[in-house]
Design brief:
The protein is of the alpha/beta class and about 350 residues long. The chain has two domains: about 210 residues, Type I PLP-dependent aspartate aminotransferase-like (Major domain) (Aspartate Aminotransferase, domain 2, 3-Layer(aba) Sandwich), CATH 3.40.640.10; about 130 residues, Aspartate Aminotransferase, domain 1 (Alpha-Beta Complex), CATH 3.90.1150.10. It contains twelve helices and twelve strands. The strands form three sheets. It has a seven-stranded mixed sheet with strand order 1-9-8-5-4-2-3, sandwiched between helices. Strands 7-6-10 form a three-stranded antiparallel sheet, with no helix packed on it. The chain is globular and about 65 Å long.
């Protein structure tokens, strides 16, 4: 008998993933967005609730809150790590706050301990958007078990990919059971629908690919760390550049992106243009959610509402981060960045 969806490969992919990140449970889904959606749904987030989420992240982190009829409360980031802090979260807590969705931006781990303590004190749920952080470590422990729930993405630009796909890790059995129901059309037993669920199942083909990809995780992280070290060595001390963040609690990083910080948006754009003319692709990162047209039009946000997020995005440029870049390619990137800044200066 051959399974196409929700078969032995899908079950094994969750088991292998849980073992790889040290999680109690892992549930495979068809996207990282689906993972975020069902995680909040399993917690009962709905109309009248508020969920705190950073503006400097991919838009799905906020969209899934709207899917449930709740309100995304967009907040600032720490420009030194691109992540939220306990102080930022504290300033946004109200009597309606149901959950916090902090993001391991660029795969840089959050400082989890103080954030989790704060949320526990206020009886607020935590769903960590760890889409970019597979392989990262917080104080020596792989990301995936620090928060009660973590959500990962297997989109093609992530550390491992299933084409499209995602994974939720969680701690307690009740949450696991609820998520499994919601992923599979709210079923408790065959055709016995006890909840308003979704078709978020991962296929067997995706799962098989994910199992194969997961076996290469350590090698991928090692290769990306070597690339990051190369950029550190070759760009350190260059006037006008700040290297990618390495907070002391981040004992390993996935290096989803290696992000330089420059003086301002004009300099960033000139570097990107100079590299493009030399055949080198860059990324400017996710524009802050509060400045996306839908959020401006729907909620009346203005760019200056969250100035730190805007300034952080305007100063950030992502360098090529493919782990199989050759020495010649790496040298070309570093030389082009230096050349761009020397022309600018």
């Amino acid at each position: 008998f051959v399974w196409i969806s929700r078969g032995p490969m899908t079950r094994r992919s969750g088991e292998d993933f849980a073992a790889a990140v040290g999680a109690t449970h892992a549930i495979a889904l068809n996207s990282g967005t689906a993972a975020l959606h069902v995680a909040l749904a399993a917690l009962g987030v709905g109309p009248g609730d508020e969920v705190i989420v950073p503006s400097l992240t991919f838009i799905s982190s906020a969209n899934v809150i709207l899917y449930l009829g709740a309100k995304p409360v967009l907040v600032e980031c720490d420009p030194n790590t691109f992540n939220v802090t306990p102080e930022i979260i504290t300033a946004a807590i109200t009597s309606k706050t149901k959950a916090v969705m902090p993001v391991d931006m660029n795969g840089i781990p959050l400082d989890y301990d103080p954030i989790l303590r704060l949320c526990a004190e206020h009886d607020i749920a935590v769903v960590a958007d760890s889409a970019e952080a597979l392989g990262s470590e917080y104080r020596g422990v792989r990301i995936g078990s620090q928060a009660p729930i973590h959500c990962f993405s297997f989109f093609p630009n992530k550390t491992i990919t299933t084409g499209e796909g995602g994974m939720v890790t969680c701690v307690d059995n009740e949450t696991e059971g609820r998520i499994r129901q919601l992923v599979n059309q709210g079923q408790d037993g065959r055709y016995n629908h006890v909840a308003l669920g979704f078709n978020y199942r991962m296929t067997e083909m995706q799962a098989a690919l994910g199992i194969s990809q997961l076996s290469r995780l350590d090698a991928q992280i090692e290769a990306k760390e070597k690339l990051a070290q190369f950029y550190d060595r070759n760009l350190e001390g260059v006037p006008g550049l700040e290297l990618a963040p390495r907070p002391e609690w981040a004992t390993a990083q996935s290096w989803f992106m290696y992000s330089l910080t420059v003086a301002n948006r004009t300099v960033r754009d000139e570097i990107a243009e100079h590299l493009a003319t030399n055949g080198i692709d860059t990324r400017l990162g996710f524009p802050p959610i509060h400045n996306q047209p839908y959020y401006r039009d729907t909620f009346g946000y203005k760019p200056e509402d969250l100035p730190i997020s805007m300034q952080t995005w305007e100063r950030k440029i992502d360098l090529p981060s493919w782990p199989k870049m050759t020495a010649e390619q790496r040298n070309r990137v570093a030389a082009a960045v230096k050349e761009a800044l020397s022309v600018k200066n």
